[in-house]
Amino acid sequence: GESVGLHLPTLSVQEGDNSIINCAYSNSASDYFIWYKQESGKGPQFIIDIRSNMDKRQGQRVTVLLNKTVKHLSLQIAATQPGDSAVYFCAETWEGYQKVTFGTGTKLQVIP
Amino acid sequence: DAGITQSPRHKVTETGTPVTLRCHQTENHRYMYWYRQDPGHGLRLIHYSYGVKDTDKGEVSDGYSVSRSKTEDFLLTLESATSSQTSVYFCAITKGTSGRGGLDTQYFGPGTRLTVL
Questions:
Q1: How far apart are CA B26 and CA B81, in angstroms?
Q2: Which of B32, B105, B107, B113 is the mutation pick for testing A, counting most A CBs within 10 A?
Q3: Which of A4, A42, A98 sits opposite B101 (nearest CB)?
Q4: Fewer CB within 10 Å, N or C, chain B?
């Protein structure tokens, strides 16, 4: 809900610019990663995922990059729009693990 | 839309009272999860289910119990609510063909905002 965005790192981006949101994951055994978007008062919404046998995956206006060497994940949003304003967080899991570990998130603010 | 509903959407209750939250799905998915979300903590897993009557604990399960008597319903019960359980609660399901809940994308319900006074 509205309290999700409190205490989070914030990225402010001008409308039309590209946004890059970063995530450091914790487990070197993780082999599946997901990015979620959460708007105020709503549940998290799946954006894009990537498996560890890839280092890049593209969707519509979004790209996820995976660097397993430094355990880093990034989400790139092209031509950022006001509707992209939300909290974004990454999640990780691994083969044989029935659960998912979520990051705390980054708040994206789009300046019109 | 993953066909997930949660009820109630908002609830205010008093310390010491039992509370049950319901998650309902319409697509017969095997895996269901309950999370709580608090500022500064992200989503934390309370309990999850991998089938009817099959449940397991997550990282913050103390003070919570769950039941799954039907595929479509996953109930979360706060046996005796405390102020520390004031939170937003999300239900999630896993869609996918891997057969391993963790390897398939989770889809979330709209959440229940619970306030314990």
A1: 29
A2: B105
A3: A98
A4: N
